[in-house]
Amino acid sequence: MRFVTFRRLEAVSFTHSVVYLSLLVCAFVLGNPEPETFVLGLAHGLMWIGMSLICIAAARAKIIPFWLAVTVAVLGGLGPFAGSIGFVIAARRTSSGQNP
After folding, report:
1. Which alpha helices (DSSP H) does the chain contain, by range?
2. Are 20 and 44 in contact (CB under 8 A)?
3. Closest CA to 55 of 24, 16, 19
4. pTM for the whole thing?
5. What is d(CA 22, CA 98) in angstroms, rounded to the nearest whole number?
């Protein structure tokens, strides 16, 4: 867990959101081209699984708050934007001195 930090998880969360947004654009705006839609969908699914497992472990190690790990794990499969927003909220709470 020494390589897992709040900032790295935040960066991966934003990357996941970009992959998901690309998937939505590819599927709904560009007419569902293959294999692009498949690759983006697979990347989204694997990133969600990885982020869920790592965020749960990070919450247990007190790297991120538990509510954030739940947000990433539960809502991340449907829309990783919730996790990215959660990281922004947690960072703001930490920087303002509030309990994350």
Report:
1. 6-24, 36-60, 66-70, 81-95
2. yes
3. 16
4. 0.88
5. 34
d(CA 10, CA 89): 11
Other CB atoms closer than 10 Å to residue 96's CB: what's the count?
7
CA distance linking residue 97 with residue 11, whole number of Å:
22
The backbone region for 31, taken as left when phi is positive above 0, alpha when psi lies in -120 to 50, beta otherwise, is left
Condensed to tens digits (0 to 9), the pLDDT of residues 19-70 reads 999 999 999 999 999 999 999 999 999 999 999 999 999 999 999 999 999 9
CA dihedral in degrees (11, 16, 21, 22; nearest 10)?
A: 100
